[in-house]
């Protein structure tokens, strides 16, 4: 029966193609690529994110964590502003598939200081120093990330090029469409900031990243409550770099790959005052 024979041949060829496809597909995808000497091609990015309990926290952290899941060799350091670690953050991190470190420290705000995240970022830096001292591969990049900003994957590609400190534009911040270093002949010669332009480094936290090994070279480098508002960035950068040494990235600071978005504070109706009864939702994690 020639008809059946042809079908069998097709079947055999089909199976062969299937097996070949399976074989080529089963090679591991390179989550982490290595140089011949065993060090990672992509330096680890240590993202440091302070966070605090609020209604939109899980929504913000979900959006951010799912961006970060697309970044190669990423290690997320999340520091809760709380006395104890919360179940909400713990579960979110565990379910994320990310490499992470979960810390917590409660802010005890001093008078005249409105800066947020100081204690949390400093605790993360302390952890990082301990971690790097023990690590074989000390190569890495430190990036301070708010939990409600918007990050293009491109910003992570850029920061892996850093030698000491890299800078780039940040969208929608400081009352401007974009706040950015001004670059001429591949060097930063100024900034376009209008909010406190007299700051030594008038750039947002999202607009720079630092070579991680510098934190071992300069063990005293940390954030401070003693500086006026808007000076946290300058406070940390002064330990590592000068304006002339800044490395302009994102095509000589002509591209926006990160936005200082803010999640609006949601307004919730007081359900106890509503006429129609609603399902009790007190036990649902939102
Ligand atoms: C940045 O500018 C310098 C000097 O003009 C140039 O040599 C370099 O190629 C530029 N880099 C990028 C990525 O555009």
From TrEMBL:
PANTHER family: GALACTOSYLGALACTOSYLXYLOSYLPROTEIN 3-BETA-GLUCURONOSYLTRANSFERASE 3, GALACTOSYLGALACTOSYLXYLOSYLPROTEIN 3-BETA-GLUCURONOSYLTRANSFERASE BETA-1,3-GLUCURONYLTRANSFERASE
Binding site for Mn(2+): 148
Cofactor: Mn(2+)
Gene3D superfamilies in the cross-refs: Spore Coat Polysaccharide Biosynthesis Protein SpsA, Chain A
E.C. numbers: 2.4.1.135
Glycosylation sites: 252
Organism for this UniProt entry: Loxostege sticticalis
Keywords from the named record: Glycoprotein, Golgi apparatus, Manganese, Membrane, Metal-binding, Signal-anchor, Transferase, Transmembrane, Transmembrane helix
Active site per database record: 233 (proton donor/acceptor)
Phylogenetic classification of the source organism: Eukaryota, Metazoa, Ecdysozoa, Arthropoda, Hexapoda
Family the entry assigns: Belongs to the glycosyltransferase 43 family.
Protein name per the record: Galactosylgalactosylxylosylprotein 3-beta-glucuronosyltransferase
Domain of life: Eukaryota
Cellular location(s): Golgi apparatus membrane
Matching Pfam families: Glyco_transf_43 (PF03360)
Broad class of the protein's primary localization: Golgi
Coiled coil: none
Membrane topology annotation: Single-pass type II membrane protein
Listed pathway(s): Protein modification; protein glycosylation
Signal peptide: none
A single Gene Ontology CC term: Golgi membrane
Annotated site location: Interaction with galactose moiety of substrate glycoprotein: 179, 270
One function term, GO molecular function aspect: metal ion binding
Keyword Lipoprotein in annotation: no
